[in-house]
Write a structure and sequence with these properties.
- Helices cover 43% and strands 18% of the residues.
- By secondary structure, the chain is α+β, with helices and mostly antiparallel strands.
- Strands 1, 2, 3, 4, 5, 6, 7, 8, 9 and 10 form a ten-stranded antiparallel sheet that branches.
Length: 389
Amino acid sequence: MGAGRPPFRAAESGMGADSGPESPPEPLAESPALPPPSLPPPAAGLWPERLLHGIEALAGRGLDATLLAPQPPGRPLGGLQRAELPAMSLRAGWLAGSLRLRGPLARRQVVLALHLPDPEAAAGRLRLWHRAVAPGDLCLIPPGLELDACLHGRARFLLLAVPPGQLRVALRQMTPADGFAPDATPLLRGNAVHVPAIGAAALRRIAAALAIQGQFGAGLSPRARQLLRTELLEACLQPLVRPAAAGAAAIAEASAEPVMSGAYIVRLVEDYLTVTGAAAGGELPDIDTICTAFRLSRRSLARAFQDSLGVGPMTYIRLLRLSQTRRALLAARRHGSSSPGGSSQAEGAAAPGVTGIALGHGFTELGRFAQLYRRMFGETPSETLRARH
């Protein structure tokens, strides 16, 4: 994760500097109401859908994932499909659960992230950075910018990754003579740009383009594939091409971020937990240490986490420890299966391995840890280590 900016005073943050009473640890959040377990059908024309089972499936794509509520056993966290067009990668998928996600989506490409309407279920609560994102909203994510997402419920998405030069060309070609051509440089180097409600017409254009991809797939000619890419880009970018005054104001408002928002506090604390936890061998600092490091009251810290993630800081630290412990158990399982003797060695070392890993991540009450772990991930720590699936 990024290093972030230096710590700041609570008075500067707008979160309040008053000192509140110490709160008891919050219970684990309950999983939100989710749609029936029937999975959404794969989108035609894309590569076969790959289901995402567990946070490890997201970690394999470069994202740090933390479960914020128990995931029902056997239910995947989501599904992902992909297709390729000239100078464009398409990713379509869905996520269902309570998740905190951070990490870069693309290091050298611009990502156009569209929150798709879902005809099968009500949309969940999705926040990207500090903004609530509704179905039909678009986010332009510069190359290398770290994703900052929180989801409670379900969301469908379409990700279009294109080279920065392709975005510049598309904006220039779309701009009428008396219109506003957004300067692509801020879009490529600054904050993510949030474009609310790109409109039904744009969504219909995108659906029609994907339908063509679905009907003809690899049988499309190179020229047709280029036209399909152009159609998808123009449908997403059209809201940015406006009369000059309105267009400039829209870009400025869409890319602005409150300097000391609650989401920013959460990101700083997460980075601090990553650095200090690694230095302490996996054991994370407590709430008082965090408040002292950032000169925040407990009340200010709690409000920042509750507003941004929907859980308090004590609960989040426990959930983060659980997710980190699961990743450590999976890493130990992979190490054991690659050693001489394979699974027999891993199975023989299961009990001490679980104990050492749990203690290393701050869980001293092993019985309580096993209960929390099974509730969150639907299996015991030993089963994770032994690969009993």
